[in-house]
Automatic annotation (TrEMBL):
Localization, UniProt: Endoplasmic reticulum membrane
Domain of life: Eukaryota
Record keywords: Calcium, Calcium channel, Calcium transport, Coiled coil, Endoplasmic reticulum, Ion channel, Ion transport, Membrane, Transmembrane, Transmembrane helix, Transport
Keyword Transferase belongs to the record: no
Protein name: Calcium load-activated calcium channel
Organism expressing this protein natively: Desmophyllum pertusum
Length: 78
């Protein structure tokens, strides 16, 4: 009974490690993924900067708000 439990745990851990290794090789190492990750980080920083600038101003300009919404949409698409 205990041996079966240990065997099941070993198989599940081995399968999880194998699947993560394959995912790393096929997805995370690609240039497309790295480029997309860098783009998301850049857009996130840009969005935070715009939010800080808008909160500093007493009145929000319509143009600033629209620009911020466009950056948010681009971030969602990424």
């Amino acid at each position: 009974m205990l041996a079966d439990t240990v065997l099941i745990l070993f198989i599940s851990v081995a399968t999880a490690l194998l699947s993560e290794g394959i995912t790393y090789l096929l997805v995370y190492r690609t240039d497309k993924f790295k480029k997309l990750t860098a783009e998301v980080e850049k857009d996130s920083k840009k969005l935070e900067k715009r939010k800080e600038n808008i909160s500093d101003l007493p009145r929000q300009g319509g143009g600033q708000k629209k620009k911020m919404e466009r950056v948010e949409e681009k971030l969602k698409k990424s």
